Amino acid sequence: MEGQVMLDFAELKAAFDALELQVHPVIAHASLKPFGYIPNGADTVVRAMLVSFKSVVMPAFTYRTMITPEVGPPNNGITYGAKKDLNKMAQPFTPDMPADKMMGMVPEALRNQPSAMRTPHPILSFAGIRAEKYLATQTLYEPFAPIGGLGEDDGWVVLVNVGHDVNTSIHYGEKLAGRKQFLRWAIVGDRVIECPNFPGDSSGFTAIDEYIQPDTRRVEIDSGFIQAVPLKRLFDAVGEMIKKNPFALLCQRTDCERCNAVRG
Question: What is the percent of the chain with per-residue pLDDT over 70, rounded to a whole number?
């Protein structure tokens, strides 16, 4: 496109290859906006990832399946009965339900690949390619088990133009460290089911930046960046931070119900 900077498949592949993770599985989060124009957009990014990494997994979460009941367990980071209008708009989960728009365009592009698999969790599903062994570990009770499996296989988290405040893997580290988890509810078919071990808020996760900077690989590409962190080190870092300060990685908003519930 004349007059626009264009980032193509070869440049994306070169940037991903520069991370030197070809033999590692990854969980990825991405925003394309800083890159400007990319021919075929998110599909091109997915193709570049698939030739640069052993396995690719992404969150394909569907929050529009959630409902808020009138009553529930105490200290659950939620105001019961407060979202009646949203409850009316809630949709039953289906395997082909698109990932929420807040997840960005890339997870949906991955989910729509012919070889992609998706887990059946009604809120916290993951999509992946060449990732069957990781996706198969997810249960309703252990929604983030695929991240643990990736970590056991020396997996990395790859962040494309985004920070750790969208890094889902930190939630898994929080759970390993014993941080409080929550109960949520979702519609599946004509039933409402309980979804335990729902995570807390992530907007305070940028506090981990300096802590794991020595373990981070970073590549600048055009007007954007790609950074990667080994999952095992990430989990350890989360545990170390919470051990030193039980309120580490929580946000500072006074109205954040989940962080307030963790603080007690």
Answer: 98
